[in-house]
């Protein structure tokens, strides 16, 4: 049986959340913040280290420095336009295929 912390959250579940968050921070090479009303709140650096932590006893404010990532992804550079154009292209090709299939039925 798993231990239950003061906040009523399983320690096993809290540990799994922390492990997943640390893995995500390392994978994306970005800072990650875990924020909780009734549990640990933490700041994790891009290397998976916990930089700051606030426990669940009483009211706390977690403050810390988070460095924004300077590299831009393709989505940051192009924005929504690339996704919209690809979606429009797929819709247009589907419409053309649908119309050509229906025209072949009418001539048969």
TrEMBL record:
Residues 1-68 form the CN hydrolase domain. PROSITE patterns: CN_HYDROLASE. It holds the Pfam family CN_hydrolase. Keywords: Acyltransferase, Cell membrane, Membrane, Transferase, Transmembrane, Transmembrane helix. The chain crosses the membrane at residues 81-98. GO terms for biological process: lipoprotein biosynthetic process. InterPro entries: Apolipo_AcylTrfase (IPR004563), C-N_Hydrolase (IPR003010), C-N_Hydrolase_sf (IPR036526). GO terms for molecular function: N-acyltransferase activity. This is CN hydrolase domain-containing protein. It comes from Candidatus Yanofskybacteria bacterium RIFCSPHIGHO2_02_FULL_43_22.
């Amino acid at each position: 049986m798993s231990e239950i912390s003061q906040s009523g959250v399983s320690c096993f579940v809290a540990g799994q959340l922390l492990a997943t968050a640390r893995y995500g921070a390392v994978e994306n090479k970005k800072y990650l913040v875990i924020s909780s009303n009734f549990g640990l709140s933490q700041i994790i650096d891009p290397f998976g280290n916990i930089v700051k932590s606030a426990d669940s006893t009483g009211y706390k404010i977690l403050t810390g420095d988070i460095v924004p990532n300077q590299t831009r992804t393709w989505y940051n550079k192009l924005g929504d336009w690339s996704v919209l154009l690809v979606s429009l292209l797929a819709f247009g090709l589907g419409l053309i295929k649908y119309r050509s299939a229906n025209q072949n039925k009418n001539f048969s």
